[in-house]
Protein: Transmembrane protein
Amino acid sequence: MGERSAAIGRTVRAGLAGWAPGLRTCGTALAVGAVLGLLPRALPPGLAFLALPLEFSATTLAYGALYRAAIRGPSGWNGLRWGAVEWRLLAVQALVTVILTVVAAVLAVLVGAVVVGVAKSNDPHLDITSLEAWRAALDGPGAIPASLPPLLSMIVMIWLFLRLSLAPAATVDRGKVQVLSAFGLTRGLVLPLAAAGAVLAAPACILVVAIGYVRAIAGFSEGALVPQLVSVALLFFYLIPVWTAALVDLYRHQALPAPTPGTVRS
Structure:
């Protein structure tokens, strides 16, 4: 427990300590990424298919600048550059997305099977076309068993995401795409990563809740520009920099070999 607490504290401190330097060395890349991140919200329906590529490009541009600056040193115009690092990180994002999507699909099938089984056990003559029949079948004794599979599925997805979270750092450091090969770097670190991520994300979450409250009072529409600008700014100018700095620090501790007795790690 002591080691995990120390790891959480170190990771949080590294994330916060890397925030200002990340903005300073990669501000232009983050700003361009934020603009690209806003573009999908302005696309007409006929160009909606461009939303995902734009979002991938936006986050790749930001992560590429930050990881490159932290691991290889600053380059480009205040971090703004699209080179081999960005292409590799784009591949990592795509592969991780595919893995998570496949796992989510499998879990969805399993969850559906369990929910149907619970509903059928409570009501053997369940009318699957009736929403009221489903509600009645999953109420009472069936509520808890039916709610557990979705909860467990969410935990599995978070676990898998965190286990793959050092793939970008490993990719930039080793100069080749690393996804499943970086899986072992996070062995035993899921809980510290989750805790550190929650602590780092807490200020942004509080601000988002406050913005939602203000939006409700001020009567902003769902697609109002100001809340969208704030959410994108939070993502690119806070969450991405602190999370990247935290992961780089964790990667350095995991990837570097342990010093042999009588030596000092530099």
User: Anything to note?
Assistant: The chain has one domain: 2-255. Confidence is low (pLDDT under 50) at residues 258-266. Residues 2-255 form one domain.
